[in-house]
Amino acid sequence: THFGFQDVRLEDKEHMVRGVFDSVAESYDVMNDLMSAGIHRVWKDTFVACTRVESLAKAIRCNAEELTILDVAGGTGDIAFRMVDAMGCEERAKSSGRDPVSVTVCDINTEMLRVGQRRARERYGAALLDETQALSFQEGNAQSLTQLEDNSFDLYTIAFGLRNVTDVDAALREARRVLKPGGRFMCLEFSHLPHPVLQSLYDVYSFNVIPTLGEAVANDRASYQYLVESIRKFSDQETLVKRMTEAGMEGARYTNLTGGIVAIHEGWKP
Ligand code: SAM
């Protein structure tokens, strides 16, 4: 059967997902480019453009307030780096003092965080991490963000992370809890194609090509088989809107990208 992991007990899923990302951490960025023919970069650019962090950061700087962003399941930093770039944090790092903008990357997996921190240092030097603290990395589980206080973030993002969480509804409730009232939740995730024929063609591609690529490039068929299965089993667009609403978010809605291969979901904490 295609769904080799579907009998995994819930309490084992977290352990298994940890193992998957431990083994893919080093090859993760290259594999993303190969599997999606580079399109994941466009999806991520579009996602970050939709957050409008650039104009939020401008408004904050004028009012000398703070803008706090939490990127959950942030892995090797792709979303956080785009946000930091859009908000001009590197430019501000040349002048001293703490940046009024902060992006916190939170991930359950220390290997992914290690790769992310290394990439951040290569890209920006130490200033953003150590001096202005515009960018920070911390370990944490999306479904119980016990290290984070209620009402503390203006924006919560999760990109290609929610489907890996064992208890998605708990993660949505946690997102609502840590957001400030009026704060925004944004999720970028694989979703479902509205047309069954397109969905079957896409399944043929993903179930055959992706595990084979995983084996050839990363010598790890099983992890990439898991990735494909987790995509297929995750909620479709409307179901995720419903789950967000049940978790107490308002204005839940989605936008499809590439015909629904991925979708951006967003909502507000009232
Ligand atoms: N957001 C990054 C990106 O778009 O490139 C990484 C996405 S990667 C496919 C999924 C990430 O989710 C991994 O880094 C994994 O460790 C993390 N993850 C899985 N389960 C998690 C959980 N329960 N809490 C926090 N992070 C989790």
UniProtKB/TrEMBL annotation:
S-adenosyl-L-methionine binds at residues 76, 107, 141-142. It catalyses: a 2-methoxy-6-(all-trans-polyprenyl)benzene-1,4-diol + S-adenosyl-L-methionine = a 5-methoxy-2-methyl-3-(all-trans-polyprenyl)benzene-1,4-diol + S-adenosyl-L-homocysteine + H(+). Pathway: Cofactor biosynthesis; ubiquinone biosynthesis. It is found in: Mitochondrion inner membrane. Its EC number is 2.1.1.201. One of its GO terms (molecular function) is 2-methoxy-6-polyprenyl-1,4-benzoquinol methyltransferase activity. GO terms for cellular component: extrinsic component of mitochondrial inner membrane. It is a peripheral membrane protein. Keywords: Membrane, Methyltransferase, Mitochondrion, Mitochondrion inner membrane, S-adenosyl-L-methionine, Transferase, Ubiquinone biosynthesis. It comes from the Eukaryota. GO terms for biological process: methylation. Component of a multi-subunit COQ enzyme complex. Belongs to the class I-like SAM-binding methyltransferase superfamily. MenG/UbiE family. Methyltransferase required for the conversion of 2-polyprenyl-6-methoxy-1,4-benzoquinol (DDMQH2) to 2-polyprenyl-3-methyl-6-methoxy-1,4-benzoquinol (DMQH2). This is 2-methoxy-6-polyprenyl-1,4-benzoquinol methylase, mitochondrial. It comes from Seminavis robusta. The lineage of its organism: Eukaryota, Sar, Stramenopiles, Ochrophyta, Bacillariophyta.
